[in-house]
Amino acid sequence: MQGVGQKLEQILRELEDMVPDVEAIVVVNDEGLTLASSVPLGLDEDKIAAMATIALSLSERAVKELDKGDWDHAIIRGTKGVLVVHALTGSSGAVAVLASKEAKTGMIIYLVKRIAKKIVDVLEGKDEGGTLSVAAPDINLPPL
Questions:
Q1: 143: exposed, middle or buried (Cβ count in 10 Å: 0-12, 13-18, 19+)
Q2: Which CATH superfamily is domain 4-123 in?
Q3: How confident is the model at residue 141 (pLDDT cuts 50, 70, 90)?
């Protein structure tokens, strides 16, 4: 039987397999603690987690102060790549995806939204131990 950490790592690996331009993925709680990650050598996991937590905090505050409902995600685009931070709805924290400038941001958001639900289920012990596939069975995703 897989532990929580192993289940989360499996979910993150599946996302990496589906979006080749993903460079790193970090799951953080609202205090910036890394709950799971897939970060290659040469990238600083703690720095990614800290930046994701800052983006989470500022984005949540902006949405609240401007009366725009509940925070969902933030996209921070630079000339060399993108950071997508997506809420773990129903839980406190977020999934941060660091990707190259060639990455298809819409595809990342779509897939991260799907895995965020699975991550929350694993964290809350609601997963059923079945497949963790993030692809919808009735959707054929185009090759990237």
A1: exposed
A2: Dynein light chain 2a, cytoplasmic (3.30.450.30)
A3: low
